[in-house]
Amino acid sequence: MLARQLAFPITKLKGIGKVSAADFAALGVETGGDLITLYPRDYDDRTVMTSLADLPPEGGTINTIVSITDHGHYMAKGKRVLKIGAKDLRSGRTLYLHCFGRAFMENAYPVGTSWYINASVTRLGSAWSASAFTLGSSEEAVGIGRILPIYPLSGNLSQKTVRKAVEAILSNKYIHFDDEVPDDLVAKHGLMHTDEAIRQLHQPSDRASLDRARLTLAYTELLHLELRLERQREKRAKSTHPPKAGKLEQALQASLPFSLTEDQLRVLDEIREDLDAGSMDRLLQGDVGSGKTLVAWMAALHCIERGFQVAFMAPTELLARQHAEGAAALLEKLGVRVAFLTGDVKGKERGYLLDALHQGGIDLAIGTHALFSKDVAFKRLGLVIIDEQHRFGVEQREALRSKGKDVSLLMMSATPIPRTLAMTVFGSMDISTIYSKPMGRKSIITHIVDEKNRERMYASIGVEFSRGHQAYFVYPRIDDEGEGDLKDVTTMFSFLKEKYPGIPSALIHSRLPEDEKMRILDDFRDKKLMYLVSTSVVEVGIDIKDATCMVIEHAERFGLAALHQLRGRVGRSELQSWCFLVYYGTLTEEAKARLIVMRESNDGFRIAETDLRLRGPGDFIGNRQSGFLRLKVASLVDDVELMAQAKEDAEAIIQEDRGLLQSRHATLRRILSADGTQEPSD
Ligand code: ADP
Ligand code: MG
């Protein structure tokens, strides 16, 4: 059977009662299958004998033989603690074993006796000490000679409990795990059979076998992942010619001073095809400034032309309004009825709007999360578009979506996610990617500036002002919503006023009232203001073409994704733009690496990959979601080559046997159909 299909509850195993079952449940382990796929997070390698002489000055783990030399006692926190003196027979040095609450050890380990020991040792003053140790009469008893698995734990679970439970399954001679990789590929890559790999991963006989087991299971996961991807691609490739742009879409295109980029056209084909086929679930990712908004309007027109309503949701009032204004300018002349709905729209106006939405008198509603309030009802909602999707939770998306039947979803993300990661996180969603920006965009020139040497930066920005170009000066929100950061921007603001006398500017931060913020941005757009000093409120989406300078203070405190987003506020036209990353003090290695990536690259996808490497997936998708990553053994960061191999193999399999009907693919077919990606065609 497949490992994951061991369906008996773990309470059937000896030694697992209600209490530990609850702890296991917290780890997501309820069945034998869950337990056997709860893989060790690390190993305690006791295959090598190490004595005190082998340890570095700060200590470490030893596996050796000691002879007990004396028993002593001392008081700690009002309790008598036994301290056993033990001589390491292999180095001749002395080790002190502190037996907290374990007075019985005095009799169990008399002076003069010798024992095998595994201990994690630290230096206390000039003496070696250990309080976590195992003494035993044989190597076997203390695990010497073995590589012990270390499992993730929760509650009161101990390694011992988990190891025993796993052992109970593995020692059952009726249990055998089916191969999850076809034989020919096992042979080709020198893999283990699945049964052996699972056993070795839990109970490795030596390092080499452990490595091979890990490789086998990582490859297995990636092969399944790539097969799922391959089938999805297949599904798309099979369908008929993509529907053409309708009248409204053509009219919008004709009204633009530029033509759509090839990437925009391609993703629109993908989107239209989905929309016409029924319900769409699509993530549109593209770097900052790649023109996602226009794609969204085109998709909206496609639905509107078919008599549906469209809801467009943005994370902030500012951004929602920018979009509403953009939509009004572009779409109203085509006869599209656009409405703007946020929490600030109240009273009569709100009542009128809600009525119109309900009666079908509005085609496109643009707003914030106010769009999914209870009192908002649509006549015939067909498409929900979500800008800057990472700012919304799943529940919010679904709330909006549930306002209609078979509502399609288009989520837009300006934080590019490496493809592998996106696939795993967004599971069943289709992904459209805009790789290239509109023609004629210049790369943003990025400088890393020590805050002590900021004068040259101010000089070059001054030159930009004289050309009629604008700038942002951003201070991080250091202590979320605290007063400290406000003081920082305020100080910076008066400092800049002196630096650039007579140049109109404004201070904008998250605690200003919404309409005040909007007024400031309007003035900035109209060039009544030449620069803005802000906390990171300008982070998302704001699109102002003549802004060419971005100064980020305390750049060392921002993550790569945020830096890239902020920098994306400039470089939004054919003008040359600059970004200055101002840092304070000495940079840590990681911060330095981040700033250098920013300087070397303008490519959001490359930056995202580096971020993934530096900090893991949590920062992309929220730590909460990253827990659901389906990969248990393979690493999105370290197994890139293995992933490429798995992809190649998956392509070959699908090419040859797209229905996975051949007998050697029977297990693969079972695995893929179990998670619902199997097509019903066979
Ligand atoms: P983002 O993908 O970051 O949301 P936007 O949709 O705000 O980017 O687009 C950035 C700018 O590029 C906008 O001012 C938009 O009008 C412009 N733009 C979009 N598509 C094109 C195109 N095909 N050619 C030239 N400019 C374009
Ligand atoms: Mg945008």
UniProtKB/TrEMBL annotation:
SMART domains referenced in this protein's UniProt entry, alphabetically: DEXDc, HELICc
Q: Which GO terms describe its biological process?
A: DNA recombination; DNA repair
Could you tell me which residue ranges the Helicase C-terminal domain spans?
443-613
SUPFAM superfamilies attached here?
Answer: Nucleic acid-binding proteins (SSF50249), P-loop containing nucleoside triphosphate hydrolases (SSF52540)
- Location of the Helicase ATP-binding domain: 273-434
Enzyme Commission code: 5.6.2.4
Q: Which InterPro entries match?
A: ATP-dep_DNA_helicase_RecG, DEAD/DEAH_box_helicase_dom, Helicase_ATP-bd, Helicase_C-like, NA-bd_OB-fold, P-loop_NTPase, RecG/Mfd, RecG_dom3_C
Catalytic activities:
Couples ATP hydrolysis with the unwinding of duplex DNA by translocating in the 3'-5' direction; ATP + H2O = ADP + phosphate + H(+)
Main enzyme class: isomerase
Q: Which UniProt keywords apply?
A: ATP-binding, DNA damage, DNA recombination, DNA repair, DNA-binding, Helicase, Hydrolase, Isomerase, Nucleotide-binding
One example GO MF annotation: DNA binding
Q: What does this protein do?
A: Plays a critical role in recombination and DNA repair. Helps process Holliday junction intermediates to mature products by catalyzing branch migration. Has replication fork regression activity, unwinds stalled or blocked replication forks to make a HJ that can be resolved. Has a DNA unwinding activity characteristic of a DNA helicase with 3'-5' polarity.
User: Which family does the record assign?
Assistant: Belongs to the helicase family. RecG subfamily.
Query: What is the name listed in the Swiss-Prot or TrEMBL entry for this protein?
Result: ATP-dependent DNA helicase RecG
Gene name tied to this protein: recG
